[in-house]
Amino acid sequence: MENGSTNWGFRANEELDRAFAFPIKGVVATLMKNLNKSDHRPTIPLGRGDPAASPCFRTTPVAEDAIVDALRSADFNGRAPNVGILPARRSIAEHLCRDLPYKLSPDDVYLTAGSKQAIEVILAVLARPGANILLPRPGYPTYEAHAALNHLEVRHFDLLPEKSWEVDLDGVETVADHKTVAMVIINPGNPCGNVFTYEHLQKVAVTARNLGILVIADEVYGHLAFGSCPFVQMGVFGATVPILTLGSISKRWIVPGWRLGWIVTNDPNDYLQNSGIVESIMEYLNIASGPATFVQGAVPQILEKTTEDFFVKTINLLREAARISYDRLKEIPCIICPYKPEGSMFLMVKLNLSLLEGINDDMEFCVKLVKEESVIVLPGVAVGLTNWLRITFAIEPSSLEDGLARIKAFCFRHAKKD
Length: 418
Ligand SMILES: *Cc1c(COP(=O)(O)O)cnc(C)c1O
Prior knowledge:
alpha/beta; binds pyridoxal-5'-phosphate
């Protein structure tokens, strides 16, 4: 029989192609292919947020010891319950409810393999036929990817650069309808580096309540706020509107490879329980595979024993890196900096293409920048804003300075002569 004549029944799931159009990893991989191998200077990675690669952002020994102790105890070699082990859930509940006006129970906490899995779980749970979800623009494309995989319609609302990247709440009301299930906020913000005020979060809560939708609060950068606005948990408004909060040790403890995150139901009125959402989350976790048990076992020690000086050191590094980035970028005529970051590890700046020769969009800017200067910067199109750039500043300060100087040289070299 001829090989070519078999009518194979398998084919790849085309939805994955659609979903993979979004994630940042893919765009960065494309940019990396353009690296000029004859440039002997080090490549400066301002594209993806992975500070763990920089020695100055090493995690605290407290966290490392917690993992070693958990592993050596031999108590965590077995399978964990699908929702996660009780001591870890309890310590997360206690840790979070210190800043809340009501109690959280361990039963409000579900452990996930990083917040990324939390996003996967929540979008799968919410994706009823015909439903839609409201996502921020610019945003974090993992949400778009999982919405696409789950056939959950996405509608975007804007974050407003001239208002410290606050949510355009009128826009939220315009795009929502009776099929809308939830809105997502990311605070402190990726990609904008903004921190929402208490008053703004309250308005978000009231808007969502009036629309009858729940709020998904992505607080993966929780407490990484270094400006004038303190970090406030969305969960403070749990009595106004039901909230699913996402958290993780990835960013605050700078261990994204440990894959430990959580979903918390901030819902003192039990709306989520009564609507079956909680039940569905548990069902989903029954068929999923969560974080490694010994990492779960380390959580109580990590949360309870990490001392303030580690957090202060991280915050100081980020504040200084944000300041350097903002100041240097402002010196470049073709780059518009509407907002000085106050949280997370990123900032968004806008390209004034009319001042550049032979560069027609953000992707072209980034490809040429990689080729000529070995600097990786994320084109805004990857996070939903064409002709902007997202710059990660959580790297070694000397590399940051080097990268910013190369961006400046690049922009001056490509400036239109008048
Ligand atoms: C990094 C990131 C995540 C995922 O974090 P993990 O806990 O490492 O999975 C989720 N949301 C946002 C906005 C992020 O930047």
